[in-house]
Structure to design on (205 residues):
């Protein structure tokens, strides 16, 4: 059986992202969220009502299978109305998921590969993608004309800061001639930007 890893243990190593998602929740109208490649990062459920987590990792499967444990981990940490539906799908997100299209309000892509490319179909028009530069996903999103940057997120000393003005400073390649979608896909490496950020919030047209 897979070793049990809890969100509180994981949080102790990567930090608590609850304040990141609280700020997204304050700025955007979001009920339904999809988080492919979540591992045991339960933090979105502190801010949003319904979150579907997807991962192939057996430790994530074991953690989310224990609904009492998940409830204890969330206790006292949720915003009003958040954490009411926590669903886990033990699946490879690059294979089409049995979920409705254009249905979720927020798609999360953090350190988990080309989530936008494979799961973007589940995001509703007018919804949001939160992506970081890991594995090139934010770079692929930045090149997608259906997405518009609405905030850059900095992470410094454990705090998340959203920047919504002067966004034209962001996603500017250091080497504009070197930007190549096929290379990003093939290498899983993002574009080097003149002004990097921890993550980027995009709005879907
Ligand atoms: C580095 S961890 C990041 C976990 C979490 N997103 C975070 O930011 O803390 C990457 C996770 O993505 C999962 N993952 C990677 N590719 C996947 C795929 N194609 N389908 C499902 N899960 C995947 C891995 O199993 C792992 O749990």
């Amino acid at each position: 059986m897979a070793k049990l890893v809890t969100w509180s243990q994981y949080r102790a190593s990567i930090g608590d992202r609850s304040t990141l998602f609280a700020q997204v929740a304050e700025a955007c109208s979001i009920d339904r969220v999809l988080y492919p490649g979540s591992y045991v990062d339960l933090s979105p459920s502190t801010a949003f009502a319904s979150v579907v987590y997807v991962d192939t990792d057996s430790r994530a499967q074991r953690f989310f299978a224990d609904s009492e444990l998940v409830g204890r981990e969330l206790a006292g940490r949720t915003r009003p109305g958040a954490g009411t539906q926590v669903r886990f799908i033990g699946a490879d997100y690059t294979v089409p998921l049995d979920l409705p299209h254009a249905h979720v309000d927020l798609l999360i892509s953090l350190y988990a590969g080309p989530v936008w490319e494979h799961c973007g179909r589940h995001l509703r028009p007018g919804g949001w993608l939160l992506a970081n530069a890991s594995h090139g996903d934010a770079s692929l999103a930045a090149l997608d004309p259906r997405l518009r940057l609405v905030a850059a997120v900095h992470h410094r000393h454990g705090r998340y800061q959203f920047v919504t003005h002067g966004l034209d400073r962001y996603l500017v390649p250091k080497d504009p001639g070197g930007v190549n979608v096929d290379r990003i896909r093939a290498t899983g490496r993002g574009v080097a930007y003149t002004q990097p950020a921890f993550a980027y919030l995009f709005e879907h047209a």
Summary: The two ends are 44 Å apart (CA to CA). The mean pLDDT is 96. Strands lie at 32-36, 50-54, 85-89, 104-109, 123-132, 147-156, 159-163, 199-204.
